[in-house]
Write a structure and sequence with these properties.
Layout lengths: L14 H14 L7 E2 L1 H8 L3 H13 L3 E4 L3 E4 L10 H8 L4 H26 L2 H20 L2 H17 L4 H4 L2 H13 L9 H15 L3 H19 L1
Length: 235
């Protein structure tokens, strides 16, 4: 089917906004699998050049949301083909009707991966990274107790990113943007308490201490406990 919406002024639409608009419609089901899009129709809808539309479609195609078929046009893919780990797809799901399901699946992914990543960091992280992790945990407590949620989010992303990147496992490290999106989503959508719970602040400190001390088993145990608190919070 053709997308039918009123054209918007070109001056107010950037490539990212076009990608967001179409991507979110695909993720939310407004555009169903098999729906057809044409370059001409998209040009008219968004008021942009054919080159801009082509560039946007290439990006959506790289995410496996659409594919091009000769003499048919651009076709919306079935969800089984989507790149579920793409940060933009995660963001669109967290902002759409699939939010609860996305939080559930992301939390399950974190429970499966991050305890092992913490264990790996305890074994592989360099001295500077171990110190940085302890400092980030202390900063999380300070920011959390002061209720500075935006700054807390930045420190929380840095904490979990450092764990993943120092785990000694390149596949774990590649999930840093996935974890960043779910942490960001909780804050942006008002799902974080004004002051993070003591169990969460203490959990980060315990993980950091275990990693700094090179105790992989304890780091795994403490990260598991921390993520169980997250699981309960988003349930």
């Amino acid at each position: 089917m053709e997308r039918s919406v009123s054209p918007r002024p070109a001056a107010t639409v950037m490539n990212g906004a076009i990608i967001d608009a179409i991507g979110a419609d695909i993720i939310s089901g407004v555009l169903q699998p098999g729906s057809r899009l044409t370059l001409e129709g998209l040009q008219e809808t968004f008021g942009v050049s054919r080159t801009v539309v082509r560039d946007c479609m290439r990006i959506l195609e790289s995410m496996n949301l659409v594919y091009s078929k000769r003499r048919i046009g651009i076709v919306v893919q079935e969800s089984r083909h989507w790149n579920w780990f793409d940060a933009r797809i995660i963001r669109w799901r967290l902002n759409g009707p699939g939010r609860d399901e996305q939080y559930r699946t992301l939390t399950e992914l974190r429970v499966a991966v991050e305890p092992m990543a913490a264990c790996g960091a305890a074994r592989h992280a360099g001295e500077d990274d171990r110190k940085a992790l302890v400092e980030l945990a202390a900063r999380l407590r300070l920011l959390g107790e002061e209720g500075r949620l935006d700054d807390f989010l930045a420190a929380d992303i840095a904490f979990h990113t450092l764990l993943l990147r120092t785990s000694g496992n390149e596949m774990f490290a590649s999930l840093d943007s996935v974890v960043a999106e779910v942490l960001t989503g909780r804050t942006v959508q008002g799902l974080m308490p004004d002051h993070p719970r003591e169990v969460a602040l203490r959990g980060h400190e315990q993980v950091a201490r275990a990693v700094a001390g090179g105790d992989g088993d304890e780091a795994m145990l403490q990260m598991t406990a921390l993520l169980e608190e997250v699981r309960a919070a988003v349930a």
